Amino acid sequence: xxxxxxxxxxxxxxxxxxxxxxxxxxxxxxxxxxxxxxxxxxxxxxxxxxxxxxxxxxxxxxxxxxxxxxxxxxxxxxxxxxxxxxxxxxxxxxxxxxxxxxxxxxxxxxxxxxxxxxxxxxxxxxxxxxxxxxxxxxxxxxxxxxxxxxxxxxxxxxxxxxxxxxxxxxxxxxxxxxxxxxxxxxxxxxxxxxxxxxxxxxxxxxxxxxxxxxxxxxxxxxxxxxxxxxxxxxxxxxxxxxxxxxxxxxxxxxxxxxxxxxxxxxxxxxxxxxxxxxxxxxxxxxxxxxxxxxxxxxxxxxxxxxxxxxxxxxxxxxxxxxxxxxxxxxxxxxxxxxxxxxxxxxxxxxxxxxxxxxxxxxxxxxxxxxxxxxxxxxxxxxxxxxxxxxxxxxxxxxxxxxxxxxxxxxxxxxxxxxxxxxxxxxxxxxxxxxxxxxxxxxxxxxxxxxx
Amino acid sequence: xxxxxxxxxxxxxxxxxxxxxxxxxxxxxxxxxxxxxxxxxxxxxxxxxxxxxxxxxxxxxxxxxxxxxxxxxxxxxxxxxxxxxxxxxxxxxxxxxxxxxxxxxxxxxxxxxxxxxxxxxxxxxxxxxxxxxxxxxxxxxxxxxxxxxxxxxxxxxxxxxxxxxxxxxxxxxxxxxxxxxxxxxxxxxxxxxxxxxxxxxxxxxxxxxxxxxxxxxxxxxxxxxxxxxxxxxxxxxxxxxxxxxxxxxxxxxxxxxxxxxxxxxxxxxxxxxxxxxxxxxxxxxxxxxxxxxxxxxxxxxxxxxxxxxxx
Lengths: 451, 311
What we know:
The complex is a heterodimer. By secondary structure, chain A is of the alpha+beta class. Chain A is built from nine helices and 25 strands. Helix content of chain A is 19%, strand content 33%. In chain A, strands 7, 8, 9, 11, 12, 13, 15 and 16 form an eight-stranded antiparallel sheet that branches. In chain A, helix 7 (138-149) packs across helix 8. Chain B is 31% helix and 15% strand. Chain B contains nine helices and ten strands. Chain B has helices spanning 19-37, 49-62, 81-93, 103-108, 125-135, 200-210, 273-282, 287-291, 301-308, and strands at 41-44, 70-75, 98-102, 139-141, 158-161, 189-192, 221-228, 231-234, 248-254, 265-267. In chain B, the strands form two sheets. A six-stranded mixed sheet of chain B has the order 3-2-1-4-6-5, sandwiched between helices. A four-stranded antiparallel sheet of chain B has the order 8-7-9-10, with no helix packed on it. The longest helix of chain B has 19 residues, at 19-37. The chains are: A alpha+beta, B alpha/beta. Chains A and B meet through helix 1, helix 3, helix 5, strand 2 and strand 3 of A and helix 1, helix 2, helix 6 and helix 7 of B.
């Protein structure tokens, strides 16, 4: 195994270009040491440059602090520095010889649940921090629930501040066991638990000298080796049409290409496809991968499909293999996270953006709201406020080909938009989720009380 | 590590895209979303490497058709001649339409005043925002990257600006999956950053991989420069050198391109793309820290300028 601390300058252009990209998110409560962990990942992977460190040192000194406060590396806005907290998601970048990383650094406060949802929506991995002294707390369960809800494929439990519990194996063991049991119940497919001290650098980038009993990877080693591609053999192929390319030039008088980013699966030349919602079918006669013809293309490549027949296709349509088309529906039931300050109510007229299509829709029902602390369902809450997670039934003005979010994060997700001012209201995940294992019973229908 | 059959050379698992392919695909998706949803988009084009990469991506996104966007150059009047020359050649070669917002015009008309320090960077905001209003641009592509600066790390890919072009970091729309929300009221517009997730090194690796031509000033060359505020500035009519500053010939190159008054050169003998990449990979300074005077004005200089409508 190659050393993870090898500086990038020893690598050639070819080596640097061949690395893969991992998008991941961090989650942790206010004092769990998230900033320290992020700071250490950036610092120890040599991603903090001298002038940035000097700026932090200057700012720390002007506040009368003795050492450089690494949290200032990540808190970028005036309001954040004033309050000493992270308000919004920030994206950070670092690299090792093996991989490039996009880190969605999300705030831990309860009132910023929507920001964790934002960060997790594009993440392939989430690092959830806990303080070894406190173990699994309410906030940890909330973070695990969001990771499960957003179907983040890999979850890392970083048990931090191991130095403050004497690097004790049994402390780590019981926290890891409790968390893994809880996460598995939520449907999280994979949990990797790592005992760390972000402050001292144990098991973050370098293996710890204090925990011989731990035989697993460091945080960075795990980030470098976790698989980022999916088993496409079992994926439904989906291409939302973004734009029709028609040069109408002397050189290309008849070129008509359907451009889009493959949301899931693979497409091959010669394959029979169906266009939704119209249901017309034809075959793929060619695939252009940004100007270069290819025989096969897969998620998440941006491509242009050429078809055998002149089918009427425009932006918003979905191209799928004829043998594997999703049903179209105007009634969507989904788990949602409400991300706007104004509440979502039954009867609300909204716009729904799914893939490349935006349609009118109406909120027909809000059957339940989820209490993240104990995963209990509150029936018919009447509305969803900011940061609430709940079940919603939406009726759309036109039929949409939707997948279950469990099958496809891209074609199973949507956003609701306020048509009056364009505000992004709600993030939606189509289909069943762990949050609705049983049909919700309406308390008002209970006839147990008879006065 | 287990070895698995590979389809794409260089990646460790089947169907995984290399990081450059993933970034390219994402940027192309963003260009096509804007083309599909907006009426009058425009690409901010400075002739710097980021805007050159943006244009290259746009050309690929719509090939074999032409790019369905015009270019907009905010001309400070203190340009590197090599960059203006490059700009004009690109516009002609690809049959593009070029809009120019001129700082010098505003100074000549008495609307803007020259600053005592001679830098024109902050003066760009008014010509830019007025041009957006008069041309009714509804989507404005910028080459900004989140790795450049910590306020930019908070920037969305689709960033709504009010009728005064102002950015309010506390009122940003959450951005979920790749479902970008481009809704805006009349008079408002959306700044779009297709290179959000790229780093300086990614940009250079991509330039190398794609064989993209750049203005010569990015590569080491002999140049007459003088020292001010710890940076090598190019001597010229814009206001340097002053008394006590002496011009000397040095082997330098630029890491960023902007107004001559505040963009510094670095000592370098990197005269090829490969050498430039090796130099950046080994550098312990960010490109802005090394070469931009205006960002050093205060801890929140970038945030404050972005709030006012700067790119």
